[in-house]
């Protein structure tokens, strides 16, 4: 692999939607349930992925508890090349709050930031309260990519990060 570029990817969204678990799933291919690390969050993890024979380094930042008070620092947005914006398909409020998160992104993030909307916990079929179509419609309205994921089963996790890496690489 040739050595390519490095990008900052930030995970945002309401508390408990699965940001930390998604990062751990992508980085270590494991699932954390209800553990300490999941509560406090982690700072960031690097992962190098291969996009068409070029190494792309992703530095993936977790929001370590600040999201509880909606006080994600503005500097955090400013440095982001990509944002993974999560809601929980079993938590309607987390979906309704996506518009507020997008307003913040619009205010503080770089104009060319790559955004992907993710409906996480899609494995919880009987508890689901947000339909896939609702997620798709919202993403379409804001012109962002969209996927449903599960940090628990791993569904679409690799795919989401690879799509981001591919998009970042193609934009430069
Ligand atoms: P964060 O606050 O957004 O970082 O959320 P966490 O990653 O700490 O996850 C919150 C809770 O949801 C934890 O108990 C996780 O085990 C659980 N969780 C996270 N992702 C999933 C998922 O995809 N499926 C299921 N069933 N549970 C999940
Ligand atoms: Mg967390």
TrEMBL record:
Q: GO:BP terms for this protein? A: protein transport
Necessary cofactors: Mg(2+)
Pfam families found in the cross-reference section:
Ras
Q: Which UniProt keywords apply?
A: GTP-binding, Hydrolase, Lipoprotein, Magnesium, Metal-binding, Nucleotide-binding, Prenylation, Protein transport, Transport
Top-level taxonomic group = Eukaryota
What EC number is given for this enzyme? 3.6.5.2
Query: Which is an annotated GO molecular function term of this record?
Result: GTP binding
* Reactions mediated catalytically: GTP + H2O = GDP + phosphate + H(+)
- Top EC class, one word: hydrolase
Q: Which family does it belong to?
A: Belongs to the small GTPase superfamily. Rab family.
PANTHER family in UniProt: LD44762P (PTHR47980)
Q: What is this protein called?
A: small monomeric GTPase
């Amino acid at each position: 692999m040739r050595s390519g570029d490095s990008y900052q990817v930030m995970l945002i969204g309401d508390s408990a939607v699965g940001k930390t678990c998604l990062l751990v799933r992508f980085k270590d291919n494991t699932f954390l349930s209800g553990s300490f690390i999941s509560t406090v969050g982690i700072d960031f993890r690097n992962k190098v992925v291969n996009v068409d024979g070029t190494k792309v380094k992703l530095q993936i930042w977790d929001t370590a508890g600040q999201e509880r008070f909606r006080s994600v620092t503005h500097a955090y947005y400013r440095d982001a090349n990509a944002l993974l914006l999560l809601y929980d398909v079993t938590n309607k409020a987390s979906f309704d709050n996506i518009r507020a998160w997008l307003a913040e992104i619009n205010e503080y993030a770089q104009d060319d930031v790559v955004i992907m909307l993710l409906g996480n916990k899609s494995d919880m079929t009987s508890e689901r309260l947000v339909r896939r179509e609702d997620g798709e419609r919202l993403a379409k309205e804001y012109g962002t990519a969209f996927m449903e994921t599960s940090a628990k089963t791993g569904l679409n996790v690799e795919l989401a990060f690879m799509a981001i890496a591919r998009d970042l690489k193609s934009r430069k």
